[in-house]
Amino acid sequence: MRLNRLTDYAVVMLAHIGRPGRESGPEAGGRRVVTAAEMAADSGVPLPTVAKLMKLLAQAGILASQRGALGGYRLARAPERITMAEIIAALEGPIALTACVDGREGDCEVESLCPMRGNWDKVNRAVRQALDAVTLADMSLEPQRFPPVAAAAAARPVAQAS
Amino acid sequence: MRLNRLTDYAVVMLAHIGRPGRESGPEAGGRRVVTAAEMAADSGVPLPTVAKLMKLLAQAGILASQRGALGGYRLARAPERITMAEIIAALEGPIALTACVDGREGDCEVESLCPMRGNWDKVNRAVRQALDAVTLADMSLEPQRFPPVAAAAAARPVAQAS
DNA sequence: CTTATACGGTACCAAATTAGTCCCCTATTG
DNA sequence: CAATAGGGGACTAATTTGGTACCGTATAAG
Ligand code: SF4
Ligand code: SF4
Predict the structure, then answer these.
(1) Residue B27 CB neighbours (<10 A)
(2) Distance between CA atoms of A65 and A73, rounded to whole angstroms?
(3) Are A113 and B44 in contact (CB under 8 A)?
(4) What is the pLDDT of residues B80-128, one digit of tens each?
(5) Which nucleotide is at minimal CA–C1' distance from B63?
(6) Given phi > 0 = left and psi -120 to 50 = alpha, else beta, which region is A93?
(7) Cα A81 to chain centroid, rounded
(8) Alpha helices, DSSP H only, in A60-112?
(9) What count of other Cβ atoms lies within 10 Å of the Cβ of residue A26?
(10) Domain ranges of chain B
(11) CB nearest to B98's CB, from A3, A125, A127
């Protein structure tokens, strides 16, 4: 139930690209263009790995690439229109918790005598919906200042806790 | 985004245990007791592997074990009160899509300069809720004969759904 | 009390997957 | 033409996963 580290990195980077650039240059109208090298420098992830990720994201239609000098990547769409499900699917293949969902049969060697073939679809669908409901824009927001456990602690009388 | 094969098997077996036994013996009142060897035979999964799974599930309090002759496993609770989230957590550890959720910090080496630490929690929570909403009882039902889209059609008054 | 049954725990190994690297090609700018 | 920057694919090392083996302990039957 843990997703690949690369997928995690990809989301971090996409959020980074999607975030409005510090410098308000001529790119104001369109979306920001960032090179793989920049991403590597900003994120600490090694360049070859970043490059690999970007390629995959571009193939999936999440990033638009521009080759040649002055080239780079930019979001293919507004961050509000890119979902987590999409990103994950781009990097890890279709969201399928088990081998027998998605209609694809024959992947599981015991599926003929398995009395539950169809039931996983419920879970799968629930998860996919959850992942569809979160967009890249949601991930670009400033992280909430209060960690989960501190919810109660933050309500202490001394703290002015919203 | 794929869960372990073992987790899949575990759910299949749990559903199998939870299903009302063909033979209505003295166990009618309590829950059915099944040995690891039986499970292995029924499922095709090799015995040592089954045993390992059962152990884990017993430790997690999902199965109750009875040692000695005539021993075996049975569900610790009614299938309606066992959630997918619980089963998955028992076998794969707490549900945490990335290294920086659940409050556990320091697992990710770049989390200090990652501008999104808290945001994954949203996704994580969404997934966990989705998994909490499905119980073992839901997984024990006969797989629906109709593919997902037929959900509305299945509610027709005319069909007595057999 | 002895024996057969069946779970409990741990250590271990092999296969599969993942993360990361390398190298060369193609496109674009100037 | 030279410099930049992505595209593609093969390759390797590290980690995780799936599966096995062995020995100990509890319990019921006889
Ligand atoms: S057929 Fe059964 S064992 Fe195979 S993937 Fe589906 S649920 Fe799992
Ligand atoms: S801190 Fe950032 S990079 Fe690290 S696990 Fe969390 S989201 Fe991913």
Answers:
(1) 12
(2) 5
(3) yes
(4) 999 999 999 999 999 999 998 876 667 787 777 788 878 999 899 999 9
(5) C7
(6) left
(7) 12
(8) 84-92
(9) 6
(10) 5-75, 79-155
(11) A3
Ligand 2 centroid to residue B96 C-alpha, Å: 12
Does residue B4's CB lie within 6 angstroms of at least one atom of ligand 1?
no
Give the three-class secondary structure for B72.
Answer: strand
Q: Smallest Cβ distance to A147: which of B103, B114, B144?
A: B103
CA nearest neighbour of A41 among B110, B105, B98: B110
Domain A5-75: top CATH class: mainly alpha
Taking the model in full, what pTM does it have?
0.85
Render pLDDT for A65-118 as a digit per residue (tens, 0 to 9): 999 999 999 999 999 999 999 999 999 999 999 998 876 667 787 777 788 878
Q: What angle do CA A88, A15, A36 make, to 5 degrees?
A: 90
Instruction: Decide: A140 and A15 in contact? Cβ < 8 Å.
Output: yes
First to last CA, chain A: 34
**Cα separation, A79 vs A15, whole angstroms:** 8
Q: Is B99 left (phi over 0), alpha (psi -120 to 50) or beta?
A: alpha
In degrees, to the nearest 5, what angle opens at C-alpha B2 toward C-alphas A92 and B81?
145
